[in-house]
Structure formats: structure tokens, C-alpha cells
Amino acid sequence: MTIYALSSGPGISGVAVVRISGTKVEEILNLITNSQVPKPRVATLKKFNKISNSELIDEGILIWFPGPQSYTGEDMAEIHIHGSIAVVKAILDELSKIENCRLAGPGEFTKIAFQNGKINLLKAESISDLISAETEIQRQQAIKIMSGKSSVRFNSIREKLLKILSNVEAKIDFPEEDLPEDVIKNIKNDSEKIRLEIEKILNDQKVGERIREGFKIAIIGPANAGKSSLLNYLSNRDVAIVSEIAGTTRDVIEAHLNLDGYPVVISDTAGIRESKDEIEKKGIKLALKRAEDADLNIILIEPKSVDFTGFLNDLVTDKSIIVINKIDLDYKNINQQIQKFNPILISIKNETNLDELISRIKEKLKNKFVSSNETLITRERHRHSLEACVQNLKNFEDKNSKEDFDKAAEDLRLATRHLGMIVGKVDVEEILGSIFNDFCIGK
């Protein structure tokens, strides 16, 4: 089967790139150019024609990548044409008429590259992250993973586990044989070292996921305090509906921001108050859950608020910033209990002290994007696999100390399998779909 897709972005552009990969690429190029394929990896000017009547579609650049020296490991080509909607559609229509040639699915080119051993799963995911990167720190992290240091480290740990497993299985298979004392001793010491190494990787404050997914900020507070107005100001656009009617926001509204190069996901939530409205009550429950999961909470109140002290006791932590809005209305009667929290006094309406709030947010951000770990965990599946690996190693150490070697070996196999799932050293067909569906069609 041969696949094709538009690999550049959709819409009008100066240049569009159509990628083709599979067994029939050379035949397709002969048909669509009425000529032989050019020299490998040399950009060549070609006329691209309709197959049925040789009508000219466009003139552009053709690059031919014979396998296995290609991105996918198969025969592959890139057609660079003018990026008009009509030209791209005409090329794709011609390709669709060829037998055993179909439109690629999301991430299918990269999936084929993985299956052909051109890349491992970590690199495949980092390619997806690089395509999706919106900030400089996200780009840097994706490039760092693509460089292969994380893969090398995980593969190294896995090979050490396999070495331990071979020693344990030797003990099982040859129970009457006297294995050297240092081998038995090393089994215990080496497994403990590996477990501690993985636990150190896990103790990263989730910096990698925070960079990839965005630093989560929740704006919470009583109804009608100005939460939606603050979201709109920080987003520099009207994301949320602003109204003087309390309880306007019922659901969680999100906006993705680039704050001085840091990726941020900021959420406007329902006003917290006593309510008999079932929908509003669900919104308040969602607000409290979002505050619990956030990396930073902006607790927004106003000077005349008298119903905020209840939820403040639970929500004011080291991940909170207290903000008092509407100081243009009444700024002298602020509850004295709030003063001890070092609140920021603002007026969204008059844009007073909002720069101070943004500076405080940036201070919180900088501390959350620093990690001493060279190996960053960027996805939840990596963390789950490493946590499962650690648990299996603990089980192994317990059973090994009791000389229950058969069961201990199985725990070690499971630990090795979980570690291998990160880079794709095991049968990972069940997780490929979820990984590659995040890609764009032409990648």
C-alpha cells in the first residue's frame, strides 16, 4: 500500500508539500510527471500533470527518497507545488485515482518510520511535540528529546534489568550449581540502584509535562468579582462573557497563552457561592476541582465581598495569589483578615496594577519550570510506566530476599516490560493508536 497527504499546513500559502510513501512511489512519479524519477535527494524542477490527459496541473520541485534512506524507511517522495487550494486539490485527486494508493491517516508516516526501525517511540512523540510547540521552551524540550539522550538512558536501564534477569534465571535453571557469591550479591545491589535511579527521574515536579501541556492557572473566587474580565485581559481578547449578573460563568473556560515564552493554560471558573441552581452548583464543583488540580490559583475577590472567608481557608496555599479587584469603587474597607496574605490590589476596569499581577505570576512560573533532571518525563504514559516499573522492582526485591526466585523473576520481567514500553522495545501495538492520532495528517 502507498499513502499520500498534504504535509504542509492547509489553506493558501506560497508553497505546499505533498508527501508520498510506499511501494508504488516510483510508478506514481512516472505517471504524474511523464518522466523518470530524478536523482535521489536532489531537488528537481518538474511539471506535474493529470494522469488521464497529461493536462498540466502545476510546475514545482520533486525530491525522490528511495528506501531505506528515507524518513519512513520506504520509497518516498515530496512534491513541492504552489500552495493554492485548487492546485493541492488537483494533485491529491490524481493520487486518489491510482490503485492501492490512499490518503494517509494521522501520524501514519511517522508510525511507518517507527515500525521500520527508523525512530523509537520517544523520538516519534518528540516530533509530534515539536510540530505542536507554541513557545520557545516547548521547542527546546522537544529538540532535547529528539536528540536521543532520554532514549539512551532508558535503554541503558533496561539492559541492566535484563542482565539482572539473566542472573536470576540462571539461579532458577541451575539450582544445584553454585553461582559466584558476587553474582547473588549484585542482583540485590543492582536492582536497588536501578530503582533509586528511576525514582530520581520520577521526582521531577512534573516539569516535562508542565512544559508540554502548559502551566495550569485557575482564576477562582466569589461570583461577580471580575474573573472573566481578568481572563479576557490576560488573553488580550474576549474569551469569556462578561456581565454584571452574578453567576454568568457556569462552566470552565480555558485560554492558552504564551507568557514570556512559558506555555500557560488559564481557566475562568464559576463564582463560588451558595446556590440552589443545579447547573450552577455543578459549575462550582468544577471550579473547586480545577483549583485543586491547578499549578497556580489566582483567588480574585473584591473589597465588599463578605462570603469569601469560607473557601479561602481551604484554597490559600503556597500555590495561590490573592488579588483584590475593583479598588476603583471601594478600596478602604478591605477585610483585615486578607491583609496577612499580601494581596495585590487591582482594577481591571482601569487597568491598575495589572503589571504587578503579571510579574507575580511570572515569578511563580520561573520556579516551576526548573528541573535538575536531564531525563524529562513529558507524557503521562511515561510516568505510569516508570511508576509500574518501580513497584515491580520493589516486589522483586521483596521476593528475592525470601529466595522466591520464580515469582521474583516474573516481577523483574514486568519491570523490564514497563520500561521497554517507553521507547517501544516491546509489543506496543495497543498504544500506537493513541500516540500517532495526535499527529497531523501529513506527518
Which helices and strands, and how do they pair?
Elements: E1 2-6, E2 13-21, H1 25-33, E3 44-49, E4 56-65, E5 76-83, H2 85-96, E6 101-103, H3 108-115, H4 121-132, H5 136-146, H6 149-173, H7 181-202, H8 207-213, E7 215-220, H9 227-235, E8 253-259, E9 262-268, H10 278-293, E10 296-301, H11 309-315, E11 320-324, H12 336-339, E12 344-345, H13 354-368, H14 380-401, H15 405-423, H16 429-436
Parallel strand pairs: 1-6, 7-9, 7-10, 10-11, 11-12
Antiparallel strand pairs: 1-2, 2-5, 3-4, 4-5, 8-9
Helix pairs in contact: 4-5, 6-7, 6-15, 7-14, 14-15
Distinctive features:
Gyrase A, domain 2; 6-stranded mixed sheet; flat; 443 residues; 3 domains; alpha/beta; Four Helix Bundle (Hemerythrin (Met), subunit A); 17% strand; Rossmann fold
Mean of the pLDDT scores?
A: 83
| Helix amount | 40-55%
Helix and strand element order: EEHEEEHEHHHHHHEHEEHEHEHEHHHH
Low-confidence stretches: 242-248
- Count the DSSP helices: 16
> Which superfamily, in CATH terms, is the homologous superfamily of the largest domain?
P-loop containing nucleotide triphosphate hydrolases
